[in-house]
Structures are given as structure tokens and as C-alpha cells.
Write a structure and sequence with these properties.
The chain is of the alpha/beta class. Helices cover 29% and strands 18% of the residues. It contains four helices and eight strands. Bound molecules: copper (II) ion. Copper (II) ion (CU) is lined by residues 39, 70, 111, 113, 116, 121. InterPro entries: Cupredoxin, Phytocyanin-like, Phytocyanin_dom.
Length: 181
């Protein structure tokens, strides 16, 4: 029993590393963390929340709220700025609302209930390219190619995050069997 307990240590280290490494892979974010998606009682907590994270294409935003009390509308910049709830690009009314970021650039979300948007129940985030995925096709035609050498990666090649995880698991197995022998 004491020996098994001892052997658990390297696995804890490996697991910790796996949790830290894929920081640039697609992630899921709970909007507002503990605040959820609610009408702020002051200030602009969603602007602060957004400034504390870096988003990439492929990330998912999860809005947790009381269904019926709030909505999540994806809107244009002008609708965001003016809190125009009339013609959203898309709207979700049931919690949790899941929004996957599919394009680079700015994305705008507001609550369409009453004056919640005016009370800063609104979120804008900027998504960068996910450098772990294939090069993005968003360069305008005729623009110079990126300064970094073009990657010759074939479609379906494993990304670096997956390789790193497999290497960590392999090292973990080595440590495990080394210590148990
Ligand atoms: Cu609301």
C-alpha cells in the first residue's frame, strides 16, 4: 500500500503538466467565471473578464444564466455600441448558451432583455488565429506571404499539443516502470 502511494507521485506530475501544456489549443471559457451571464450591479465586469483572457479561433464561450431572465445575442459592432436588440445575428435563449468562435477578429454579445445591455451585460472579445491549427485562410488575395516559412504540414497531421501530450504520457510510463522495477 505504501509503495503504491509512492508510485502515484510521478503520475500527479504528469497530469499537472498535461493540464498546463495545451494552453494554446482550443479552450472553453465560462463567461464571467463565477458571475456567470448576469446584469452587472456596477462597472463593466465583462470588459475586465475579456481583458484577462486570450482567445483563439476554435475556443468556445459558455454563457451560464437563468433561462428566461437573460439571452445571449451575437450582434454587430453598431448594435453592441448602441445596445440595439432588434436584429441580432443570432440569439440563444436557453442556458447554458454555447458559442464557438469560428472567425478571427472581434465578436460582440449582448443580453436583449429590458435594459440589461445598457447596464453592461455585454461582452466583446477578439479572437486570434489558432497557431496550432492549419494556417488560416483569411489573408486577402495578393497579400505578401507570412514572414515565417510556409508549413508543409499535410492535412490531418497531428498538432504539436497532441504530440506533447503523448510524449508526456510516454515519459510518465517510463518513470512509472523505472520506479516500480
Ligand atoms: Cu439580461
Amino acid at each position: 500500500m505504501e509503495r503504491n502511494h509512492h508510485l502515484a507521485m510521478p503520475w500527479m506530475v504528469i497530469l499537472s503538466a498535461i493540464l498546463i501544456v495545451p494552453s494554446s489549443l482550443a479552450a472553453t471559457y465560462n463567461v464571467g467565471d463565477n458571475l456567470g451571464w448576469a446584469t452587472p450591479t456596477g462597472g463593466d465586469p465583462y470588459a475586465i473578464w475579456a481583458s484577462q483572457h486570450t482567445f483563439v479561433v476554435g475556443d468556445a464561450l459558455v454563457f451560464n444564466f437563468i433561462s428566461g431572465s437573460h439571452t445571449v445575442a451575437n450582434v454587430t459592432r453598431s448594435a453592441f455600441d448602441s445596445c440595439n436588440t432588434g436584429n441580432p445575428l443570432s440569439i440563444q435563449t436557453n442556458s447554458p448558451a454555447n458559442f464557438t468562435i469560428n472567425t478571427i477578429g472581434r465578436h460582440y454579445f449582448i443580453c436583449t432583455i429590458l435594459n440589461h445591455c445598457s447596464l453592461n451585460q455585454k461582452l466583446t472579445i477578439t479572437a486570434r488565429a489558432n497557431t496550432n491549427n492549419a494556417p488560416s485562410p483569411t489573408s486577402p488575395p495578393g497579400s505578401p506571404s507570412p514572414s515565417s516559412p510556409p508549413m508543409k504540414s499535410s492535412v490531418g497531421a497531428p498538432d504539436m499539443g497532441a504530440i506533447t501530450i503523448f510524449m508526456l504520457i510516454f515519459i510518465g510510463l517510463l518513470v512509472h516502470f523505472t520506479m516500480s522495477s
